[in-house]
Amino acid sequence: MKTFIKKDIVELTMERTGLKQPETARTVDALFTVLREIMAGADPECRIEVRDFGVFEVKRTKAKPKARNPKTNEIVYVPPRRKTHFRPGKLLKEALRIPLDELDSDEK
């Protein structure tokens, strides 16, 4: 599985925009920082919609009063918390819907 890191995103963005590396790196870093701050500061839920890409959501989970510690078999209380969720947009869904065998034949 190929893993993309922030440096890869900066390089691909530089190719698309024609901007220089330091400027592109600051922009990409600022974007991720803003998204993280919005999601971390959600009280308790929020939704970030990026048209043609998808929706990032922070959702509240329910408390689990009878969860079990698998190591000790002890019943423990798990308080409610927040979790992240991503739902792809229409264009991304369509791109991911292409069968893998079609993708393999395109690469040959």
Question: TL;DR?
Answer:
By secondary structure, this protein is an alpha+beta fold.
What does this structure look like?
The chain is α+β, with helices and mostly antiparallel strands and 108 residues long. It contains four helices and five strands, in the order H-H-E-E-E-E-E-H-H. It has a three-stranded antiparallel sheet with strand order 1-2-5. Helix 1 crosses helix 2. It starts with 5 loop residues before the first helix and ends with a helix.
Q: Main β-sheet: number of strands, strand sense, barrel status?
A: 3 strands, antiparallel
Q: How are helices and strands ordered from N to C?
A: HHEEEEEHH
> Mean pLDDT, rounded to whole units?
92
Per CATH, the architecture of the largest domain is Irregular
Low-confidence stretches: none
The CATH topology of the largest domain turns out to be HU Protein, Chain A
Shape: extended
Count the DSSP helices. Answer: 4
Widest sheet, order of strands: 1-2-5
CATH superfamily of the largest domain: IHF-like DNA-binding proteins
> Helical proportion?
40-55%
Rg, alpha carbons: 20 Å
Instruction: Tell me the name of the CATH class of the largest domain.
Output: Few Secondary Structures
Number of folding domains?
2
> How far apart are the termini?
19 Å
Beta-strand percent range: 25-35%
Task: Indicate the topology.
Layout lengths: L5 H12 L3 H20 L5 E5 L3 E7 L3 E5 L6 E4 L3 E7 L1 H7 L3 H8 L1
Antiparallel strand pairs: 1-2, 2-5, 3-4
Which descriptors apply to this entry?
44% helix, HU Protein, Chain A, extended, 26% strand, 4 helices, 108 residues, three-stranded antiparallel beta sheet, two-stranded antiparallel ribbon, alpha+beta
